[in-house]
Amino acid sequence: MSKIHAAITAVHGYVPDYVLTNKELESIVDTTDEWIISRTGIKERRILKGEGLGTSDMAVHAVNGLLKKRGITAEEIELIIFCTTTPDMPFPASANILADKIGAKNAWGYDLQAACSGFIFGLSTGAQFIESGKHKKVLVVGGDKMSSIINYQDRTTCIIFGDGCGAVLLEPNSEGNGVIDSILRTDGAGRQYLHQKAGGSARPASHQTVDNQEHFVHQEGQAVFKFAVTNMADVAAEIMERNQLTSEEVTWLVPHQANKRIIDATASRMGVGAEKVMINIERYGNTTNGTIPLCLWEWESQLKKGDTLILAAFGGGFTWGSVYLKWAY
Ligand code: UT7
């Protein structure tokens, strides 16, 4: 019997309407359009506006679009893995909230927190449920409302992040397409360089934590950059070597969109030309868990059955990893 792989059979995405341009940021913090573009590659990012709207509200758009495309109902979904660093609330899980909002009455679900690597951790985890035969329809959602934890007085972080969400459906495939391999890594020692200090059990919210601005993203950019540029490139090269893939055989590199310079270094390490790299950082910035599914969504019409994709990410934690998958449709 041929091995069952977990194939992506549908993808969809959603970004909010509001466009926060570099020009507008120039009026908020001491920065310039030229600096932001040259250091990050970002020109604009989307921001979710509206009282009471959270990450799950973007996911509703992404998932409803996906279900329509695939021609299935929400009731057919068996499992929802919601990869996010900005859940609607600490509990219950955004997966539960999403299931309720879309009417996925037969699904169970949970949130997965691995910062910017969350989507590939979720994809790899979701694939196990398909490969084992436990489930036939698994939704992996990746999205963040980063604007909810960004300090718009801090020029080193507010220029990078944006809001957005993407989702994929995983189903069994016996033609050899789907998730073939993954390498996932964590190093908790890196938490000092990128974290949100307060709001968890170690430092619950208080007047003091709010006054100290401890509910915002704290990032030591240069330190994170050094780890990201090395580890993301290394892990992408490692998965190619492990699967005896040459750069010619790679159809697409789908990188986490944190900084154009990190993406370029990864592509160069893999020996993959710019024409094979999905990049939309200039329009969306870093949407954390949203970057990779949003790329897949935007490039969907160019993807062909059997295409070889290498997904790679690096994020807070530290977390990093890569996934090798063959496109199924
Ligand atoms: O996705 C999760 C993982 N995150 C990442 O991968 C992000 C990794 N880090 C980065 O992408 C980059 O480190 C940043 C984009 C955050 C910063 O770029 P950088 O080239 O590393 O800048 P830097 O922190 O070394 O700062 C260089 C200079 C500093 O000024 P001085 O000390 O040389 O006078 C900063 O104060 O640039 C200054 N600066 C800015 N200038 C204008 C920092 N932010 C800005 C800004 N506009 N927005």
From TrEMBL:
The active site is at C116, H256, N286. GO terms for biological process: fatty acid biosynthetic process; secondary metabolite biosynthetic process. Residues 110-188 form the Beta-ketoacyl-[acyl-carrier-protein] synthase III N-terminal domain. It is found in: Cytoplasm. Its EC number is 2.3.1.180. Gene3D superfamilies: 3.40.47.10. GO terms for cellular component: cytoplasm. It catalyses: malonyl-[ACP] + acetyl-CoA + H(+) = 3-oxobutanoyl-[ACP] + CO2 + CoA. Keywords: Acyltransferase, Cytoplasm, Fatty acid biosynthesis, Fatty acid metabolism, Lipid biosynthesis, Lipid metabolism, Multifunctional enzyme, Transferase. One of its GO terms (molecular function) is 3-oxoacyl-[acyl-carrier-protein] synthase activity. Pathway: Lipid metabolism; fatty acid biosynthesis. Its main location: cytoplasm. Residues 240-327 form the Beta-ketoacyl-[acyl-carrier-protein] synthase III C-terminal domain. It comes from the Bacteria. Residues 257-261 are annotated as: ACP-binding. Belongs to the thiolase-like superfamily. FabH family. The last Arg residue of the ACP-binding site is essential for the weak association between ACP/AcpP and FabH. Catalyzes the condensation reaction of fatty acid synthesis by the addition to an acyl acceptor of two carbons from malonyl-ACP. Catalyzes the first condensation reaction which initiates fatty acid synthesis and may therefore play a role in governing the total rate of fatty acid production. Possesses both acetoacetyl-ACP synthase and acetyl transacylase activities. Its substrate specificity determines the biosynthesis of branched-chain and/or straight-chain of fatty acids. Homodimer. This is Beta-ketoacyl-[acyl-carrier-protein] synthase III. The gene is fabH.
